[in-house]
Amino acid sequence: MTANNNQNAEALKKSAKKQSPWAIARRKLLRNKLAMISISFLVLVTILSFLAPYIAPFDPFRVDITNRNAMPSGTHWLGTDNSGRDIVSLLLYGGRTSLTIGFVSMMAVVLIGTTVGSIAGFYGGWVDAVLMRFTDFVMNFPFLVFVIVLASIFRDAGIWALIIVISLLGWTGAARVVRSKTMSEKENEYVMAAISIGGTPFKIIRKHLLPNVMTTIIVQATLLLAVMIVAETALSFLGFGVPSGTPSWGNMLQEARQPHVIRSMWWIWIPPAFAITFTILSINFIGEGIKDAFNPKSVR
Question: What are the DSSP calls for 140-162, one per residue?
Fold first, then answer.
């Protein structure tokens, strides 16, 4: 029995050596049940949210005074809010707004952070010093206070003002992580060989460094997505995020924060609270699953 186990282990090691790191990571991720359930849930929520104009049962902007604060029923599955708007429709349209802010801000933050971090890590010296001091300068801004001020100034621009402000202030952590990984990768032989044969810095970063830093970027991106959605929710709850006329999960909570609503009208605040909670949890589980999948020391 021991001999057979050793042979199976050797066979698994040989098959693993023949596969690329990406193939191994994909196989490990597919075996992570919690991560796969989270991916399925996030995909489902995203699809439903972006199909809101076609599947929402009611117009989320239609005010119906005769049905204010109505309990869940056959007509309104999750009831209505203080203005008589259908909660299900608000959830779908609000998810589209919150997820749009989260995804677009995350991509912008990853792009800025990867660019700054890879350039600083590759060149080093005074380039690294200038870029990192600028990063420290941006990092020293009080995030919420600065976002509130700028979002209030550019409030007429809608959600795009919030996206731009969050993106311009949220890239510093990603830049530091990418810089650290780039500095360790550029000491490897393949980068030194590319430099010795006259490869341009842009080509070396694009073809050699970024593919090997990509695993770190992907993990960072999943965690940033959760952070961006939480930031939108917090700002909207405080009244400084998405304009009040635009449905979003944060605005739904902001409009339901009166004590009497929390005590006796659970259908107004529980659905958006659950949507935010489970979306953030699924994103975090996905991030942990991807991190575990790309970890060569993990045997799970």
Answer: TS-HHHHHHHHHHHTGGGTHHHH
Q: With a cut of 70, which residues of the chain have pLDDT below it?
A: 1-19, 151-152, 154-157, 296-300
What is the rounded CA–CA span in Å between residue 294 and residue 23?
Answer: 10
Nearest to 222 by CA among 288, 144, 155: 288
Q: Which element (helix H / strand E) includes 121?
A: helix 87-123
Give me the pLDDT at residue 28, please.
87
Q: Which of 14, 11, 300, 299 is nearest to 3 (CA)?
A: 11
State the DSSP code for 84.
Answer: -
Can you give the residue ranges of every domain in the chain? Answer: 21-48+100-293
pLDDT, tens digit, 9 for 90 and up, residues 68-89:
888 888 888 888 888 888 999 9
Under DSSP, the state recorded for 86 is B
* Rg, Å, the chain Cα set: 24
Contact 233, 99 (CB under 8 A): no
Distances in Å between the Cα of 233 and the Cα atoms of 14, 53, 261 are: 48, 22, 19
Among 98, 97, 113, 101, CA closest to 218: 113
Other residues' Cβ atoms within 10 Å of the Cβ of residue 270: 14
**Tokens 């990853």 sit on residue:** 110
Architecture of domain 21-48+100-293: Orthogonal Bundle (1.10)
pLDDT tens digit string along 180-219?
Answer: 988 888 877 777 787 778 778 788 888 878 888 888 888 8
